[in-house]
Amino acid sequence: MAEPRGFLADLTRLPRLAQRAQARLPTSPLTWVGLLVLVFLLLLTIDPALFAIGSPIRLDIVNRLQPPSLAHPFGTDEGGRDIYSRVVWGTRNSLGVAFIVVLSGAAFGVLYGLVSGMVGGFVDEILMRLVDIFLAFPAFILAIVIAAVRGPGLGSVAIGLAIVWWPGYARLVRGKVLAIRNLMHVESARALGVSPMRLAMRHILPFVWPDVNVRMTTDVGYALVAVTALSFLGLGAQSPTPEWGLLIKDSFSYFDSAWWYMTFPGLAVMATTMAFSLVGDAIGKEPD
Amino acid sequence: MSATASSPVRSDAAIEVVLQVDDLVVGLPLGRGHVARAVNALSFSLGKGEIFAIVGESGAGKSLAALSILRLVPPQARLSGRIWFHGQDLLAISPAELRAVRGNAISMIYQDPMTALNPVWTIGEQINETVRLHQQIGRKAAADRTLEVLALARLPNPRQVARSYPHQLSGGMLQRALIALALSCGPEILIADEPTTALDVTVQAQILAVLLGLRDTLGLSIILITHDMGVVARSADRVLVMYAGRAVESGSVLDVLPQPLHPYTDALLRSVDLTGPRGQLAAIPGAPPPLGAAPAACAFHPRCSYVQAKCMQAEPKLRAVADRRSVRCDFPLQQVSADE
């Protein structure tokens, strides 16, 4: 008779949840690689000091442009700074901004698409034409313009990219809402007197979520490339801030004499993008 | 609206009328200003504790008519007429007022129980949501009410059902869960849109038994939309036959089924087997008229085996032929068919 309630009831469900989770663990080794890299990157973003061996900004002119050694696994740059530490500390800046871009873009886009799909009619028409305008304009150029107008800096990069990032989500969500809105269970909830707001949150949004999830995961990789590209163009982080795009930009002057300088930041961008892409694919293939 | 707010419900000596539909028209825009009347000048009343069946083939407008009661028709459909419920016209009240009626005083059961429930919430959560939406009661009281209505819909082991997700239950159990959901706020009227169509024949009988039981124990009034004369014969008190958006015959099931007056009702009854494997089933030749065809004649005349010249000149009027019985035919079948 005594049914566990609330917190206790959740606890009793834990073993079942664990079982279900086990059944859904990825089977592909590539997905595992992606997941491991993501976990590692997450730790790096949370606390770079855990992995860095020295300061990312301390100058040591005597040891400038040293090749990789035990003391400097990725070598040193033109100021004698440890490139390994700069890459490690750069994770937070590069990936952090990419996360912010995707999260804010998705948050606004989902809300926008939800409103557009739910209200429908004339409002929908106007909202979607607005999205078309954004999508018709080359996104990267628009981001460059926005960042350039605000002046260089990681904040400008985040704002510029977020502004071009949301329309894709708006269109995705709006399309899903239009399809889900006509499902029988939504109709039946309406027949029970559920208000439009509640319909959207409880009966429509949960069905939009899986698609948004997949898109967000793969998008982090693309956003990272965009962030580093803007920094590479000099619109993002400014020296001596450690940031992957900036590192690659600075390395350009030495690309024929110090191969390690551009190789390691470049590998960091590539590995991160691939990891998000692999995991995103795996989530996308997962049956709902 | 307020000038006519006093309900014109005719108080029958025997039956208290809970819902009255007057001159309901559902117009579907066809483009270029044309409007098809998918439901045309439909009037009927529902008595307390009555099971009222609306019968017709696909496209006859029976579902649209039922959906109109709670204004659940597609957004482009235009409704006119009056639907009186407790002195208010359901077609005239505000969306917020309407939401207070939906699921509360009048609720709906849909045809396909497999899709009518939200797959991401448990049955219990969905019933709880509805109860708490309409009644100011606490979590505990709502949970108790949930178990109560699940039992009312004759679901074995309500506790377990409440914890289940829709995909974990069978079609028959889901339909009962849906009935429980519809009952959760103690409605006066239940609109059942083909409640048994998606189910096995054996389960159909169980669901009908549940509905009949609810009428008897709770005094529920039920509008039953169906195309199945067998279902009508087994459960309904009164029946309204629709053809091409119009009522063609209505009356007590005990009068209409043994002695149909309209040729369409007669043909419909001949095309199903109510009595067992004897005699020949007769299909009705032809197809219903397309939506939007102008009725300058009896809509059924191209398919009618008793068609006369007059049938093609003007549409017959619906006329009362006896107490609570009417027919839209100028040449009603007076005689009992020979093979009945």
Q: Can you describe what's shown?
A:
The complex is a heterodimer of chains A (288) and B (340). Chain A is globular and about 75 Å long. Chain A has 288 residues and is mainly α. Chain A is built from ten helices and no strands. Chain A has a single domain, classed as MetI-like (MetI-like fold, Orthogonal Bundle), CATH 1.10.3720.10. With 340 residues, chain B is an alpha/beta fold. Chain B has two domains: 13-105 and 187-274, Rossmann fold (3-Layer(aba) Sandwich), CATH 3.40.50; 117-185, no CATH class. In chain B, the strands form two sheets. An eight-stranded mixed β-sheet of chain B has the order 6-7-8-3-9-10-12-11, sandwiched between helices. In chain B, a hairpin with a 2-residue loop joins strand 9 (238-243) and strand 10 (246-252). The radius of gyration of chain B is 21 Å and the shape is globular. Residues 1-13 and 335-340 of chain B have low confidence and may be disordered. At the A-B interface, helix 7 and helix 8 of A face helix 2, helix 4 and helix 7 of B.
